[in-house]
Every structure is written in C-alpha cells, then in structure tokens.
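Reopening closed ticket. The problem is back. First fold of the pair:
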Amino acid sequence: MDIAELTRRMHEFVGSKGWYEAESCRPQTPPNLAKSLVIEAGEVLELFQWSDQADPKALEGELADVFLYLMQLADVSGIDLEAATLRKLAVNQDRTWDPPSDR
C-alpha cells in the first residue's frame, strides 16, 4: 500500500465520522489538524517521560496517530507529502550539521 492509498483510506474514515461536514464538532481545518498533530506527537514523547523504553504497542498506536494527522494535514493543504519528502531528502543530502556542543 502506498501513501496515496493510505490517504484515501484516511479520508474515507474521517468522512464516515462526519468530520468533514460544515457543522462538525471536529472541523478538519489545517490549524486544527496541526494542533492535533502536535498533541499526538506529545503523546509519543509522554511514553518516554520516565524511561528510555516505551511499550511497543502504545508507541505503535501513537506513531500511527501522528502519521494519520500528518497525511491529512498535508493533503488538505494541497501538499504532495511523498514528493515533499523526496525534495527534503535531496536538500538534506548536501547539508551539514555542526557537532553537538558540550554544555
């Protein structure tokens, strides 16, 4: 399955819940999706709050939530996430990073 098919299935799910409807209590706007993405990323971090290990099943679920919001935000914003990722990889290929400083 590719990103396009995953995106289609994600839209199908969101549509089935009525969240694309004008009067939805969960409007799927770019700002709301960006907020949800960050909240879900925070839930990934929370799994590591007191340990260097996370429960694999819990991590799997939270990473999937992040991925779903990322795909949806990209798509409703008119961004081809696959192409954008390839472009960013190409930019980063020639980029250098300073070594971490000792603090």
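Second fold of the pair, where the issue appears:
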Amino acid sequence: MPKAKTLISVVDDDESMREAMRGLMKSLGYTAEAFASAEEFLNSRQVPRTSCLIADVHMPGMTGLELHHHLVASGKTIPTILITAYPDDGVRQRALGDGVVCYLSKPFDENDLLACIRSSLNI
C-alpha cells in the first residue's frame, strides 16, 4: 500500500505533541489525522481507515491503553504504539502483553518511532 494511502492516527491530549506527530507523519509521506482524545478518535470516521494508531498513555477520560483494549474488544485490531511522559514498567509490560506494538517514553528518538511504525505496518 502506498504511504500516502496509509492513515496513521495520533491521539494525544497535548496539542503541541499531537501536531508535531501529525506533521512528522505527513513529512514521511503518510496520511495523518490527529485527535485530542480517545473519545474524539472513536467518534470519528477514521477508525476503520486507520492502519496504525499512536496514542498517549495518560489522557483525561480514556487512556491510550484503555483505547487499545476498547478497539480489540470491538473487533478492530489496529496496530497501536503507546507513548508516555510517565514511563511505568508495569504498564509497559501489561501493554506489550496485551498486543501493543511499541511502548515509547517521551522524549523518544524519531528513529525508534519509525521502527515501531514499520513493525506495525509489516514493512
């Protein structure tokens, strides 16, 4: 699938991080959409089109891990990358055990994120 047809959705309550990630995805040639909350993403038309989801772990309302669980429970297995400014080994282990592709601590290296995206897209 051409990169431009590959939608990467970013869910982060921090506007500067959300927009930076969206810009990075677009600069890499992907289609990117950004959402301020898990609920906003779930209520969008982008869920079925999303090839990869990048979500913050700590957000008001539904967390990134809860969003991943919700998607899996509803039959939508979107490869998910979780990012966090508050790394927690217990949450990391649980997330990876629950099928999250990557768990990255902010600030993270752009190359690490790209490796996670390639892994999630099997490229």
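Update: turned out to be a display glitch only; the data is intact. Strands lie at 7-11, 31-35, 50-56, 80-84, 102-105. The longest strand covers residues 50-56. Please close again.
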